[in-house]
Task: inverse folding
C-alpha cells in the first residue's frame, strides 16, 4: 500500500511544472519570442484547454488501454513535450508543447482518481489529499527551480526542459509498480471472473453497478454544476500562476523574488490540499470545508488587489491555502457521488473536462485586462467576484441532494454514503 501512495505522489509532482515553470521566466520568454501579454497567457491557458478537452476523451482511452496504460501514456506525453522545449525557438513551438503536455495531464488527472477510488475505497480523502498536495507541490517546484535551472543552463530553454526528467522518473516508477503487481491483479481478476461465472447470473446489485458505469453523465445537471464549480476554482489557480510573478515584477520585485512568491503560494496549496480533505473526512457534508477554503482564497485575492506591497506573503499564503484545499475537497466531493469506480472515472473526466475549459479562459481574460488597463488590479477584482459566486454555488452540494440513481436501489458506500447518490441529477 505504501508503494501505491508513493507512486501517487511521484506522478502528481509532474502535473503542474509545465505551467508554473513558464511564469517566473515569462519576461525573458516574451523578449525572446516577441509574444504580447495576451499571447504569453496562451502558454498557460493552452495546457489547461488541453486538460479539459483531453479529459473528454479519456473514456475511450480507458476502454482501449485501461487506466494503468493510460496513465503511462500521459507521463510519456509530458516527458516528450517538456524535452521538446529545449529546442523551441518561437512562441508557436512553445504553444504546441504546452498543448501536448496538457493532453498528457488530462489523461492522468481523469484516470488516476478512478484507480484511487477502486484501490482506496475506505481512504479516498487521504489518497486524494496526497494526490492533490503533490500536484500543488510540483507547481511550487516548477516556480522555484525553473529560474535556477535557467541560470545554470544559461538559457530559459533549460528552465523549461528540465521537467522532462521527473516525468521519466515517474514513468519508471509507475511501470515498475504495475509490472510487479500487475500479474497478481490479473490472477485475482481471473479468479473473480471464474467465481462469478460459476455462481450463475449476475446479482441485481452487479447489474445496477453495470448500468451505473455506462450512464451518460453529461445529461445530468449535477455533473454540469460540479464542472462549473471545479472550473471557477481552477480559474483562480491559472490566473495566479500565469500573472502573479509579472504582477510583483511590476511592483519592483526581481524574477527570483517573484518566482519565490509563486513557490510560497504553491507550498501553502500543497499543505492545504492534504490537510483540508483530512479534516473533512469524518463529515459527509463537505460544504463547510469548501466554504472555508473559498473564504481564504477571497481574502488573499482582495489583499493582492488592495494592498499588494503591504504583506505579499500573507496574501499568497491565504490564496494558496484556499486554492489547494478547495481543489482537493472538490475532487473528493465529486467522488462522493459515485459508488462505482467506473462511473467515478466518467464523472471526474467530465467535471475536469468542463472545468479546465472554463479555467483556461481566466488567464486569457486577465492578460487582456492587463493589456487594456496597464495593471492586474481589475483582474483580481473579477476573480474576487468569481470566488463569491462559488461560495453561493457550494450550498447546492448538500449530501441529501446527491440524488436518486434513476430510481435505483439504495445502499451504503463506506458506511456513510448512499449508493443512490450516484444519480447526480439533483
Result:
Amino acid at each position: 500500500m505504501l508503494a501505491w501512495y508513493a507512486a501517487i505522489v511521484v506522478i502528481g509532482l509532474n502535473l503542474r511544472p509545465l505551467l508554473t515553470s513558464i511564469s517566473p521566466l515569462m519576461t525573458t520568454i516574451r523578449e525572446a519570442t516577441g509574444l504580447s501579454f495576451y499571447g504569453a497567457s496562451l502558454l498557460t491557458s493552452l495546457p489547461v484547454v488541453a486538460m479539459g478537452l483531453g479529459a473528454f476523451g479519456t473514456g475511450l482511452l480507458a476502454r482501449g488501454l485501461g487506466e494503468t496504460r493510460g496513465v503511462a501514456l500521459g507521463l510519456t506525453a509530458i516527458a516528450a513535450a517538456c524535452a521538446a522545449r529545449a529546442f523551441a525557438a518561437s512562441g508557436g513551438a512553445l504553444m504546441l508543447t504546452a498543448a501536448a503536455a496538457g493532453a498528457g495531464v488530462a489523461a492522468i488527472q481523469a484516470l488516476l482518481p478512478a484507480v484511487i477510488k477502486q484501490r482506496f475505497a475506505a481512504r479516498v480523502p487521504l489518497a486524494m489529499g496526497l494526490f492533490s498536495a503533490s500536484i500543488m507541490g510540483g507547481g511550487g517546484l516548477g516556480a522555484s527551480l525553473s529560474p535556477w535551472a535557467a541560470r545554470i543552463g544559461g538559457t530559459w530553454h533549460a528552465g523549461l526542459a528540465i521537467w522532462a526528467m521527473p516525468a521519466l522518473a515517474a514513468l519508471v516508477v509507475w511501470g515498475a509498480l504495475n509490472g510487479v503487481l500487475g500479474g497478481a491483479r490479473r490472477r485475482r481478476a481471473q479468479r473473480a471472473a471464474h467465481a462469478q461465472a460459476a455462481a450463475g447470473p449476475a446479482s441485481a446489485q452487479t447489474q445496477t453497478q453495470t448500468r451505473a458505469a455506462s450512464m451518460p453523465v453529461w445529461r445530468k445537471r449535477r455533473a454540469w454544476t460540479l464542472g462549473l464549480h471545479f472550473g471557477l476554482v481552477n480559474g483562480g489557480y491559472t490566473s495566479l500562476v500565469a500573472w502573479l510573478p509579472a504582477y510583483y515584477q511590476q511592483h519592483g520585485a526581481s524574477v527570483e523574488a517573484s518566482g519565490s512568491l509563486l513557490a510560497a503560494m504553491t507550498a501553502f496549496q500543497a499543505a492545504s490540499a492534504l490537510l483540508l480533505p483530512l479534516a473533512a473526512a469524518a463529515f459527509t457534508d463537505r460544504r463547510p470545508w469548501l466554504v472555508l477554503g473559498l473564504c481564504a482564497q477571497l481574502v488573499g485575492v482582495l489583499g493582492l488587489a488592495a494592498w499588494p506591497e503591504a504583506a505579499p506573503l500573507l496574501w499568497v499564503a491565504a490564496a494558496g491555502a484556499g486554492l489547494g484545499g478547495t481543489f482537493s475537497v472538490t475532487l473528493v466531493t465529486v467522488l462522493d457521488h459515485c459508488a462505482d469506480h467506473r462511473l467515478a472515472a466518467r464523472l471526474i473526466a467530465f467535471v475536469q473536462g468542463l472545468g479546465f475549459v472554463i479555467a483556461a479562459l481566466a488567464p486569457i481574460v486577465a492578460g487582456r485586462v492587463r493589456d487594456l488597463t496597464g495593471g492586474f488590479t481589475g483582474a483580481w477584482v473579477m476573480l474576487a467576484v468569481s470566488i463569491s459566486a462559488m461560495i453561493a454555488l457550494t450550498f447546492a452540494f448538500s449530501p441529501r441532494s446527491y440524488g436518486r440513481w434513476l430510481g435505483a436501489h439504495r445502499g451504503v458506500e463506506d458506511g456513510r454514503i448512499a449508493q443512490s447518490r450516484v444519480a447526480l441529477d439533483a
